[in-house]
Write a structure and sequence with these properties.
By secondary structure, the chain is of the alpha/beta class. It is built from seven helices and 20 strands. The longest helix is centred in the N-terminal third of the chain and has 15 residues. The radius of gyration is 21 Å and the shape is globular.
């Protein structure tokens, strides 16, 4: 490894203390470091360049912040995905390699190759109107379809491989990756899925039917979503990883599938997904 790039959440005060120890620890081990402007705001004296230039120069990209900062950074990297290392300067997140408590240990692990690469599939989707592509997006966690008026329900027909799955009357509908199964989808009652499972999860949010449950479909399936019913001019809103908001009308068809190119996510080699799950969700078994 010749070069590590670093980006950071400007609002995380703990990033400054981490970088003051992390950057020298990497350089002492013969690794050059390049920071983007956000990381440079926390650390003076390093080489600071624009974000995309930092990504192009780096063999790996360290992201200082929480899972939200990781999602934001991945979207900024698209379509050129480099291996990403998450360092949570608070507590351990599902997507992070370590916390900011021991920068030297993190530097030593990266230089020594003491880590594992978890290939995380993204969602790839398009919005079409009359057969013409209106928008294209990719998501690491999920896409969420809701009414623009949050007090109203949506009516959406979901099809898989051209076969109608269900017409959902709900507060919203989530389409999630295995990585996203521990995020919004889990909060809405969806299953927790191993990141090694190449599947897509469809989870309704507060459906108006007790029989509506989350559905898991295969990695080669294409999901089509289209608005049904409601008033003329009704507009739904598609949120991509909680950020980009794309307006959807009854004339639009949303197509979602798994993207071809995965995100190489750097994870600890001594901690499995299941251990992280147990620690993060504080599963301790029954007291009975």
């Amino acid at each position: 490894m010749d070069c590590i790039g670093i980006t950071a959440n400007r609002g995380k005060n703990g990033a400054s203390g981490f970088l003051k120890r992390f950057v020298p620890a990497l350089e002492e081990r013969g690794v050059s470091v390049v920071l983007d402007e956000d990381a440079g705001a926390h650390f003076s004296g390093g080489r600071v360049v624009p974000f995309r230039e930092m990504v192009a120069a780096a063999d790996m990209v360290v992201v200082l912040g929480g899972d939200g900062t990781m999602l934001h950074s991945v979207h900024r990297m698209l379509p050129d995905l480099k291996p990403v290392i998450g360092v949570n300067v608070g507590t351990l997140g599902f997507l992070t390699f370590s916390t900011g408590d021991d920068p030297e240990e993190t530097a030593e692990a990266l230089v020594a190759g003491d880590y594992a690469i978890s290939e995380r599939r993204l969602l790839d989707g398009v919005v079409r109107r009359d057969g013409v592509e209106k928008a294209h997006f990719q998501a690491l966690n999920e896409v969420t379809l809701k009414h623009e008026n949050v007090a109203r329900m949506i009516s959406v027909e979901a099809s898989v491989r051209g076969d109608v799955l269900n017409r959902y009357h709900a507060d919203g509908l989530i389409v999630a990756t295995p990585t996203g199964s521990t995020a919004y989808s889990m909060s809405a009652g969806g299953p927790v899925v191993s990141p090694r499972s190449e599947v897509i999860v469809i989870t309704p949010i507060c459906p108006h039917a007790l029989s509506n449950r989350a559905v898991v479909v295969g990695d080669d399936e294409t999901i089509n979503l289209c608005g049904k019913g409601g008033e003329d001019g009704d507009t739904l809103v598609l949120a991509v990883d909680g950020h980009a908001r794309i307006p959807i009308t009854n004339a639009d068809v949303l197509e979602v599938r798994l993207a071809e190119n995965p995100l190489p996510l750097v994870m600890r080699s001594d901690r499995s997904f299941y251990e992280t799950l147990r620690l993060k969700l504080r599963w301790h078994g029954s007291n009975v």
